[in-house]
Backbone:
């Protein structure tokens, strides 16, 4: 049994040639359809190589539009360039620290990660942030102290430091403060500089910034547009050529995957679908990927994505979607507006269940106003759809419809909130 599983991994590679090419971490050597964006990022950070402070840059665009891979690609190219001292002056030091704000989600965490990052602790610097520490951590140090250390490292070494804050919209606390600090440091430095590249899926993050921080962060701005089906096809083909066995996947299949993913213009989704479809046919011991494999893969990938987006929601939004799912799967008990058909739920009745669930979980229910905001968020994520009812006995209200099977959603939330099924 387990031998079969292992054989599947190494044995007859009928479908895949090199599966690592399809992993989420793989950065291809070329990024088709992103020449302009690559050039744009290069021009923004390029001045660092002349010892000038690069402008700050704010990049936004939908998920899977290549923001992260373009920035990482340019950084990698710059690193290669810096490794050839004959090209760049010897005394020019450029350092790049990358972090994802899903994990580093506060001003403090960002500063800490910047200082603890390998890039500033490479042993060649005159003064490194971890100097004098018995262990490689600055945890527990107060923010003013962290600031001082950052200042000293940059100043004493004359570093042009580029901070890449990916998914910057995930910074919960102190986003304005953070931007402010980084402006201030440049005013105080007599040598070296600190610049930020902020990346976000969500352009609304700008509305959370005060005017001063906004003009700082958005000194330069780039928008990544969605990929169309033809572009996704090129991106998929590049991976197929390297990662799949020749002739194991037909053009028509690639086109079909590209067409599915083109609905959101999302390359990540396209690649997940490609990989999963390959796995489906591999599991069935086939030599070619078929349409039915893509169909099955699509269901699974959708489910994964839904689970991931629910898992990331704040607790009260999870309780909200859970309540919607309870009501949706328990259709008979609650009143429906006449003629609205099954599946449409009234905001009021969902709120009642939400209150009950909060109490059962020992949480304080939020107000109706906050609850409405949760519904908007859930709709934005595509987990529910809402529309206004016509004028009925209760006046106009919003009708809610769940975007996924209720039982799946209930399972995911229960797992995520650590509840056992009853
Ligand atoms: N132009 C491209 N060429 C090749 N692969 C790409 C391209 N754009 C995106 N990808 C791939 O698609 C996936 C998602 O891209 P990513 O940069 O993470 O998107 P974003 O950060 O905008 O959400 C990654 O696996 C990436 O390698
Ligand atoms: Mg990204």
Residues:
């Amino acid at each position: 049994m387990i031998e079969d599983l292992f054989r599947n991994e190494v044995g007859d590679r009928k479908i895949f040639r090199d599966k690592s090419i399809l992993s989420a971490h793989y950065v291809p050597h070329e990024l088709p359809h992103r020449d302009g964006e690559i050039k744009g990022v290069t021009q923004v950070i390029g001045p660092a190589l002349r010892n000038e402070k690069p402008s700050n840059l704010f990049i936004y665009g939908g998920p899977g539009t290549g923001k992260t891979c373009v920035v990482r690609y340019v950084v990698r190219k710059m690193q290669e360039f810096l490794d050839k001292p004959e090209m760049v002056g010897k005394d020019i030091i450029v350092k790049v620290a990358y972090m994802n704000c899903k994990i580093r989600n506060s001003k403090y965490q960002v500063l800490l990660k910047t200082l603890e990052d390998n890039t500033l602790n490479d042993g060649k610097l005159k003064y490194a942030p971890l100097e004098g520490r018995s262990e490689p951590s600055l945890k527990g140090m107060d923010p003013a102290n962290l600031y001082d250390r950052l200042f000293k490292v940059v100043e004493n070494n004359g570093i042009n430091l580029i901070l890449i804050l990916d998914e910057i919209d995930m910074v919960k606390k102190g986003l304005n403060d953070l931007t402010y600090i980084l402006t201030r440091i440049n005013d105080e430095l007599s040598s070296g500089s600190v610049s930020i590249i902020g990346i976000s899926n969500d352009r609304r993050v700008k509305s959370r910034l005060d005017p001063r921080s906004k003009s700082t962060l958005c000194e330069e701005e780039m928008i990544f547009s969605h990929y169309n089906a033809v572009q996704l096809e090129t991106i998929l083909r590049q991976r197929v050529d390297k990662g799949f066995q020749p002739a194991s996947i037909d053009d028509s299949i690639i086109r079909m995957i590209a067409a599915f993913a083109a609905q959101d213009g999302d390359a990540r989704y396209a690649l997940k679908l490609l990989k999963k479809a390959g796995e489906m046919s591999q599991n069935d011991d086939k030599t070619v990927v078929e349409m039915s494999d893509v169909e099955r893969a699509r269901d699974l990938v959708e489910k994964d994505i839904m689970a991931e987006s629910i898992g990331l929601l704040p607790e009260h939004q999870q309780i909200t979607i859970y309540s919607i799912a309870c009501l949706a799967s328990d259709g008979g008990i609650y009143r429906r507006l006449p003629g609205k058909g099954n599946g449409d739920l009234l905001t009021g009745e969902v709120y009642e269940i939400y209150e009950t669930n909060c109490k059962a979980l020992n949480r304080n229910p939020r107000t109706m106003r906050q609850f409405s905001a949760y519904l908007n968020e859930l709709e934005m994520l595509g987990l529910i759809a809402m529309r206004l009812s016509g004028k009925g006995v209760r006046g106009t209200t919003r009708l809610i419809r769940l975007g996924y099977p209720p039982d799946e959603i209930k399972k995911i939330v229960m797992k995520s909130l650590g509840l056992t099924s009853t």
In short: The chain has a mean pLDDT of 89.
